[in-house]
C-alpha cells in the first residue's frame, strides 16, 4: 500500500508518461480513438480498487496539488484563444455554435428528468461535468468535477460515457460528409464561399525553450495561487458559484485577455497544460472504485438521450435558418469533441475551413466550464 504522497504523485506521472509516449509513437492505433487520459483513469482506478492507495495518508498531497494545478491548466489552455479571430466568424456561425451548446444543455436536462429517480442523488454533479466536456473539453470537465465535488465513482461513469459516445458521434459526423449536398438542398442553405476567412495560426509558434517553459510554469502557478486567494474572498452564490468557481472564472477571463496579445503565442502552453491535465485526472481516478459499476449503463442511456435531443433541435434549427451541414457538423464536433477533432471534421468538408473548427473549439475551451455549471444548477432544481 502506498502511504507516501511523493511516491503517489510520481507513480501517476510515470503512468502518464508511458501513455503519452505510447500514444505519440503511432504504433498503437487505439490511441486515435481513446485519449490517453482515459487509460490513465482506468489504471489509477483499478489500482485504487485493489487497495494500493492509503487515502488517509496521500489525500492531502493529491488534493493540494489538484487545487494548485487546475486554475493554472485552465489559464494555459486559453492562451491560444484570440477573441478577435472568434468575432470574425460572423453572426450566423456564432449563432449556430450557441444553438448547438444550448441544445446539449437541454438534452442533459431532459435526460436527467427521465432518469433521475434511478440515479444516485449526486448524479447531477457528474452529468454537469459531462455537460462541460460536451460544450468544451476534458479540462472543463475536471474543472466542474472539482467545483461541484462530484463523487469519483460517478465521474468515472461519465468519463467512460464521454469516450464511448464521443467515438460514436465522431464516426457519425464523418459519415455525414457524404450526404452534405442532400442535406443542404433540404435546408435550402446558401453554400456560397464563406467570407470570414482569416486563417488561424498564420504565425508559426516558436520552438519551446527553457525560458518559455519556466516562464509559463512560474506565471501560471503564481496566478493560480493569487486567483485562489481572490476566489476565497468572494461570496458564494447559489449551488454552484463557490470559491473554486470564482477562481476558475478569474483565470478564464485572464487567459482570454492574454490570448488576444502576443503573449498568447508563448511556446509550450498547450503541452504544459496537458501534463497538468493528466495529473489532475490521475488524482481524481485514484479515488474511484470499480466495485460499484451497477449504475454505469444508466449514464450511457443518459448520454444517448442527450445526443437524440441535440440531433432533433439542430435539424429543426438547420431547416428554419437554412443552415448548411458544415456549420452544424463542425459546431457539434467542437462541443462534443473539442480542439482535437473539430479541425479534422472541418477539413473533411473543406480544408480551407479548418480555422473555423479551431475557433469553435476555442470558444468551448472558455465557455464549457460555465455551461457545465449552468446545466448542473438547472438539473439540481429540476430533479
UniProtKB/TrEMBL annotation:
UniProt name for this protein: Uncharacterized membrane protein
InterPro entries to which the protein is assigned, alphabetical: DUF819 (IPR008537)
PANTHER family assigned: DUF819 DOMAIN-CONTAINING PROTEIN (PTHR34289:SF8), PROTEIN, PUTATIVE (DUF819)-RELATED (PTHR34289)
Species this protein is from: Brevibacterium antiquum
Swiss-Prot/TrEMBL keywords: Membrane, Transmembrane, Transmembrane helix
Pfam families associated with the record: DUF819
Transmembrane segments: 6-23, 30-53, 65-81, 93-115, 154-179, 208-227, 239-260, 272-290, 296-318, 325-346, 352-376
Amino acid at each position: 500500500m502506498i502511504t507516501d504522497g511523493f511516491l503517489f504523485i510520481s507513480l501517476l506521472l510515470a503512468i502518464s508518461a508511458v501513455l503519452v509516449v505510447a500514444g505519440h509513437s503511432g504504433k498503437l492505433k487505439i490511441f486515435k480513438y481513446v485519449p490517453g487520459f482515459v487509460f490513465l483513469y482506468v489504471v489509477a482506478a483499478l489500482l485504487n480498487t485493489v487497495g494500493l492507495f492509503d487515502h488517509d495518508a496521500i489525500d492531502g498531497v493529491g488534493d493540494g496539488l489538484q487545487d494548485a494545478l487546475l486554475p493554472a491548466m485552465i489559464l494555459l489552455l486559453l492562451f491560444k484563444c484570440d477573441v478577435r479571430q472568434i468575432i470574425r466568424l460572423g453572426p450566423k456561425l456564432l449563432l449556430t455554435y450557441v444553438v448547438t451548446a444550448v441544445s446539449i444543455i437541454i438534452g442533459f436536462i431532459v435526460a436527467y428528468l427521465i432518469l433521475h429517480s434511478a440515479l444516485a442523488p449526486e448524479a447531477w454533479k457528474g452529468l454537469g461535468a459531462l455537460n462541460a466536456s460536451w460544450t468544451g473539453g476534458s479540462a472543463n470537465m475536471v474543472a466542474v468535477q472539482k467545483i461541484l465535488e462530484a463523487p469519483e465513482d460517478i465521474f468515472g461513469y461519465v468519463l467512460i460515457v464521454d469516450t464511448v459516445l464521443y467515438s460514436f458521434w465522431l464516426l457519425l459526423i464523418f459519415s455525414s460528409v457524404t450526404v452534405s449536398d442532400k442535406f443542404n438542398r433540404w435546408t435550402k442553405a446558401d453554400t456560397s464561399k464563406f467570407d470570414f476567412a482569416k486563417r488561424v495560426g498564420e504565425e508559426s509558434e516558436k520552438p519551446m525553450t527553457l525560458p518559455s517553459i519556466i516562464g509559463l510554469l512560474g506565471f501560471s502557478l503564481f496566478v493560480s495561487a493569487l486567483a485562489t486567494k481572490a476566489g476565497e474572498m468572494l461570496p458564494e452564490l447559489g449551488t454552484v458559484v463557490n470559491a473554486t468557481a470564482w477562481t476558475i472564472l478569474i483565470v478564464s477571463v485572464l487567459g482570454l485577455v492574454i490570448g488576444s496579445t502576443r503573449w498568447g503565442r508563448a511556446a509550450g502552453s498547450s503541452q504544459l497544460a496537458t501534463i497538468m491535465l493528466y495529473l489532475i485526472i490521475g488524482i481524481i481516478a485514484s479515488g474511484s472504485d470499480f466495485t460499484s459499476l451497477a449504475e454505469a449503463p444508466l449514464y450511457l442511456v443518459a448520454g444517448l438521450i442527450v445526443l437524440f435531443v441535440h440531433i432533433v433541435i439542430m435539424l429543426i434549427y438547420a431547416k428554419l435558418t437554412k443552415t448548411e451541414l458544415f456549420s452544424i457538423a463542425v459546431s457539434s464536433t467542437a462541443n462534443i469533441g473539442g480542439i482535437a477533432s473539430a479541425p479534422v471534421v472541418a477539413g473533411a468538408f473543406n480544408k480551407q475551413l479548418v480555422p473555423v473548427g479551431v475557433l469553435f473549439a476555442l470558444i468551448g475551451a472558455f465557455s464549457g466550464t460555465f455551461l457545465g455549471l449552468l446545466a448542473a444548477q438547472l438539473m439540481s432544481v429540476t430533479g
